[in-house]
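Sequence in, structure out. Go.
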Amino acid sequence: MFAPDGRRLTGDIAFRPDIVKPDGGGVWFRPELTSREGGRPTYMRTKAKQLSDGNVLVIARDVDEMTRLRNYMLAGIAWSGVVALIGGLGFGALCSTVELRDQVRAAERGGGNRGAATQQRPAYHCTG
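Output:
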């Protein structure tokens, strides 16, 4: 809680930041706390309310845990994409290798006439 002149009356926040306006919207900021127990949060979501006696009540919430969770989720999505990309490339390489091997065999059987060899058999589709 802060006095109308900005002096800290009580609480863990050392000073009221200029961006935290009474009765305004919530804001993100890096707090300066009076106590160092538990470490300093990276960011806090903060809102201020002007009380009838002129004091300003500042309420802040530590959002570090939500930030860490978001980072874990983004990393998981990124790794999933990498695995899918590598799997897709590997599957594509396997299919094209099988197709190339079949074309070479067909060309060898057809006496080296590639056009005739590929026309003699139906198109091969890799289905896994």
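Check: The mean pLDDT is 79. Residues 12 and 34 are 5 Å apart (CA to CA).
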